[in-house]
Design a protein that fits this description.
This protein has helices at residues 3-11, 71-79, 96-103, 122-131, 161-176, 202-210, 229-238, 243-269, 293-302, 306-315, 320-336, 340-344, 348-356; strands at 42-44, 50-52, 56-58, 84-90, 111-113, 139-141, 148-152, 186-192, 218-223, 278-281. It is an alpha/beta fold. A 6-stranded mixed β-sheet has the order 3-10-9-8-4-7. A two-stranded antiparallel sheet has the order 1-2. A two-stranded antiparallel ribbon has the order 5-6.
């Protein structure tokens, strides 16, 4: 990145603005933003693309007030963190493995390492994935993006007290463990729309009433939203609409149903002891063209520490726009908000480094 243009940019006046991301979504500092809604009821992200309100909405923190590390401690903390660690939860057949494959841009199965650091044989991995029978201590890593480490919780939705307690102990321990490399940074709780008539079961209520994840944000991910196409068509046909016309109207009806079930789920979980931090919906994760950038965006906004934001943004491979957005928002914008004298004192090589830290490849080349 050339120092010349940045120096000219830093000399320009820059009005101070809110750091809000988009309407009704938690910003990365943990507060609810309040950007005005458009007439259509959608917000806008910093890249200018419309963001349907149903896809990323905020809720109160799962553990009370926002958590912030002391800046000096945060820098020391992040020096020891090389991978972004996510716990993925949800009932069987919620599309969890497919979601992770899309996030890591692969169709291959993950490599699984047990709690003692031993690689599990590929034949065992295949059987484990097919049955959805993971040990929560196991680490799932995809070769296409080893910057992510996933843990998969399963079994407690069947009513097993032992499985639930094991999951709960894991969450509590990994949220505050002294081993920085082992801490989890976010939880994705998947609820499939294939079960839209039983979206919130006793298992979901039990988790959100009994599991305090502390400062680790929990994001509810509504998966398999494509499954709403059939009920959408059925409703239109029941209304006497011709098949051809119903096909044209199906997408809008799907959106309507998704908003309905999203509001239903949020209404129930909001009354739990430890409600989720945010909600997001995804679709077509079983297709290579499926876009999971909104999930990464939502997770980044839910984090309370800039170092973790940087780690996630630079690890993900779904959106270069997200890298640019956070490089500007967290690095360039604060420099531009400095007084004229302070702006002229900015070291451009250091700024180059800071900006590039938001991108997957951080090498700085000079002409």
């Amino acid at each position: 990145m050339a120092p010349g243009p940045l120096k000219k940019l830093l000399k320009l006046p820059f009005a101070s603005r809110s750091r809000s991301h988009h309407s009704n979504v938690l910003d990365a500092r943990g507060s609810v933003t309040g950007a005005p809604e458009t007439a259509s009821g959608v917000g806008s992200n910093l890249t200018g693309s419309p963001v349907p309100a149903v896809e990323a909405t905020a809720a109160s923190s799962s553990s009370g007030p926002p958590y912030h590390l002391d800046p000096a401690k945060a820098r020391a903390y992040m020096k020891n963190i090389k991978q972004f660690r996510i716990l993925v939860m949800g009932r069987a057949n919620a599309g969890k493995t497919t979601l992770l494959q899309r996030v890591c841009n692969t169709v291959d199965n993950p490599e699984i390492v047990d709690g003692q650091g031993n690689m599990i044989a590929s034949t065992v991995v295949q059987g484990t994935l097919e049955r959805g029978n993971h040990n929560i201590e196991d680490e799932l890593v995809f070769r296409s993006n080893p910057g992510f480490v996933f843990h998969d919780s399963c079994g407690f939705e069947a009513g097993s007290v032992g499985q639930f307690d094991k999951m709960k102990n894991f969450v509590v321990e990994r949220a505050v463990t002294g081993s920085l490399q082992k801490r989890i940074h976010a939880v994705w709780f998947c609820i499939p729309m294939t079960d839209y008539q039983r979206t919130v079961t006793a298992a979901e209520k039990k988790f959100f009433n009994e599991c305090d994840t502390g400062h680790v944000p929990v994001i509810v991910v509504l998966t398999k939203t494509d499954a709403l196409h059939l009920p959408a068509m059925e409703k239109l046909l029941d209304e006497g609409i011709a098949v051809d016309k119903a096909k044209e109207m199906a997408a809008e009806k799907e959106k309507e149903l998704l908003e309905k079930w999203h509001a239903h789920i949020k209404g129930i979980l909001a009354n739990c002891e430890f409600p989720p931090k945010a909600y997001i919906s995804v679709k077509k994760m079983n297709e290579q063209t499926g876009d999971c950038s909104a999930l990464i965006h939502c997770t980044t906004n839910a984090l309370n520490e800039e170092g973790l934001e940087r780690l996630l943004v630079s690890t993900q491979q779904s959106s270069i726009a997200l890298c640019i957005e956070y490089a500007v928002k967290r690095t360039l914008k604060p420099k531009m908000e400095l007084g004229t004298k302070d702006r002229l004192q900015v070291n451009m090589q250091d700024m180059d480094r800071e900006l590039l830290n938001w991108f997957p490849n951080k090498k700085v080349s000079r002409l």
